[in-house]
Every structure is written in C-alpha cells, then in structure tokens.
Design a protein that fits this description.
Blueprint lengths: L2 H9 L5 E5 L4 H12 L3 E6 L2 H13 L4 E5 L5 H15 L4 E4 L14 H29 L2 E6 L12 H21 L4 E8 L8 H4 L2 H9 L13 H8 L10 E4 L7
Parallel strand pairs: 1-2, 1-4, 2-3, 4-5, 5-6, 6-7
This protein binds NADP nicotinamide-adenine-dinucleotide phosphate.
NADP nicotinamide-adenine-dinucleotide phosphate binds next to helix 2.
Length: 259
C-alpha cells in the first residue's frame, strides 16, 4: 500500500456530505474549506448571502463541491428550514459541524432575557435541533460525525462569560449526550475548543493590540489562533481515523488552557 493510499484510508472524506453552520466566516469557513479539500461535498449555512457565495466560489474555483443555504438559525423554524434545504443539495449529511455562534457578553448584572434567549437559540438550540434532525439518519446508515465548536468558557469563567459560557458548557454536554446515544451506531460526537482566534466574532478585542499580545502570551505556542488551525483537527474528527474518539473536547488553543 502506498503512503498516499494509507492516508486516504484514514483521512479522505471522498463521498461524504457535510453541513457546516457558520461556514461562511472565521473558524467555520476554515473547517468547511478543509472538509471540502479533503473530498467532502459541503453545504455552508449562515445568514449573509454575499459571504456564503464568496466561500462557495472560492471552493468551487479549487474544484471542490460546495453549496450554500442562507438561513437564520436563531429560530426553530429557521433551523428546520435550513436543515431541509441543506439536505436537498447533496443528500443527507454524514458530517455535521456546528460552528455558527454569537458572542453577546454584557456584564452579568445587565444580562437580560433577550440576550439569554438569543444566545441559547443560536449557540445551543440550533445544534440540538440539527443533531436531532440528522443524528438518527447517520446512526441508521452506520456512519456519522457531529462536531460542535465550543469555547474556553465551557470550562472556565473569564471576561464576562455570562450566557455565552453557559451555552458553550451545555453544548459540550450535548456532545456527550449525543455520543452516548449514537456512538454504538458509528456516529461520533465531539467538540473543538478554540482559544482566542482572530475572527470577525471578536473584532472588538482583536483591534486592541495590548489585549491581543496579552492573550498570545497566555498560550504555550506564543501566538493567538488562526481559523486555519482548525483544519487538521476537523478533518481528523470528520473522517474514519477518529472512529474511536467520541464525547471528547479537543482543545485547539495553542496550550492556552493548560496553564
Ligand atoms: N473566534 C474565537 O476566538 C472563538 C473562541 C471560542 C469559540 N469560538 C466559537 O467558534 C465559532 C465560530 O466563531 P468565529 O470566531 O468563526 O465567528 P465568525 O467569524 O463571526 O463566524 C460566525 C458564523 O456564524 C454565522 N451566524 C451567526 N449567527 C447566525 C444565525 N443567527 N443564523 C445563521 N448563521 C449565523 C455567521 O454568519 P452570518 O452572520 O452571515 O449569519 C458566521 O458564518 C462560534 O461558535 C464561536 O462561539 C470562537
């Protein structure tokens, strides 16, 4: 067996279908690109059409199979519609990545029901509803990969974790519950845990050079994260190689969480 065949057996996503929420920006976009370049047909889901189209155009120009669905994942109806439209493009997905997220962080005293509801809807309920829609089919077909993108705040409170931290903590629990339910049928469910990654989500923080440098100094690698840092871990978790890895939180954070 050539090394290329061996690597393909472990990591190739040829013939797989992936749905990536938040796949038009930041970490989700990098993951969508990685899965598509590894051979999967990828549907990216988010609201803004221009970003979605730009993502798909970039991938198509490289010869990848990609498509987009514009949907608002902050309502249950929006999530349901997104799921049906996404499954229509290349068929029922083998891989579901939940990267869409919002980051509203008022001080705890000012944290109102609106922020709480909006945060839970996008960061927690949408992943739950999409898992409920696609997980049983994956189990029936004997193969599936569910990957949630969580946060350091799922594990520890800092810089006003608020509702955001609660939603990400619950998302990690959701991964474990899904893993418990579906792993016996070939469906693994894991989370990727970023550190501080320079994306539009934290534009306010990334525009403060002192804070950016201080955060970089807290990592072991010595720099903040880039969306591209998630490519390898995502391909691993999406493919055959990770079949015995389930219910886990994989930290892709340059060592930020270790000390
Ligand atoms: N960047 C970091 O340092 C960091 C750290 C820890 C965790 N994370 C997590 O990583 C994930 C990705 O974050 P990112 O940094 O890549 O952020 P980003 O660049 O802002 O991307 C967020 C994505 O989610 C989509 N989205 C947001 N609200 C949506 C809605 N209601 N319906 C559908 N799509 C929606 C956005 O597209 P539209 O706006 O067009 O809808 C966009 O594609 C998030 O879950 C975030 O919590 C990020």
């Amino acid at each position: 067996m050539t090394s290329q065949n061996y690597l393909c057996e472990l990591f190739s996503l040829e013939g797989r279908v992936a749905v990536v929420t938040g796949g038009s920006s930041g970490i989700g976009r990098a993951i969508a690109g990685a899965l598509a370049r590894a051979g999967a047909s990828v549907v990216v889901v988010a609201r803004r059409e221009s970003e979605l189209a730009a993502t798909v155009d970039e991938l198509a120009a490289e010869g990848c199979r990609a498509a987009w669905v514009s949907a608002d994942l902050s309502t249950r109806d929006g999530v349901r519609a997104a799921a049906e439209q996404a499954a229509e493009v290349f068929g029922e997905p083998d891989i579901l990545v939940n990267s869409a997220g919002i980051n509203l962080r008022p001080p705890m005293d000012e944290l109102g029901e609106e922020v709480w509801d909006a945060t839970m809807a996008v960061n927690l309920e949408a992943p739950y509803l999409l898992g409920r829609r696609f997980g049983p089919g994956m189990a029936e077909r004997g193969f599936g990969r569910i990957i949630h993108v969580t946060s350091q705040q799922a594990h520890r409170a800092f810089v006003q974790s608020g509702a955001y931290g609660v939603s990400k903590g619950a998302l990690e629990s959701l991964a474990r519950s899904q893993a418990e339910a579906w792993s016996p049928y070939g469906v693994t469910c894991n989370t990727l845990v970023p550190g501080f990654v320079m994306t539009p989500l934290n534009a306010r923080l990334s525009s403060d050079p002192e804070k950016v440098a201080a955060l970089a100094a807290r990592t072991m690698v010595g720099r903040n994260g880039l969306a591209e840092d998630f490519a390898g871990a995502a391909v691993f978790l999406a493919g055959r190689a990770s079949g015995y890895v389930t219910g886990q939180s994989i930290f892709v954070d340059g060592g930020l969480s270790v000390h």
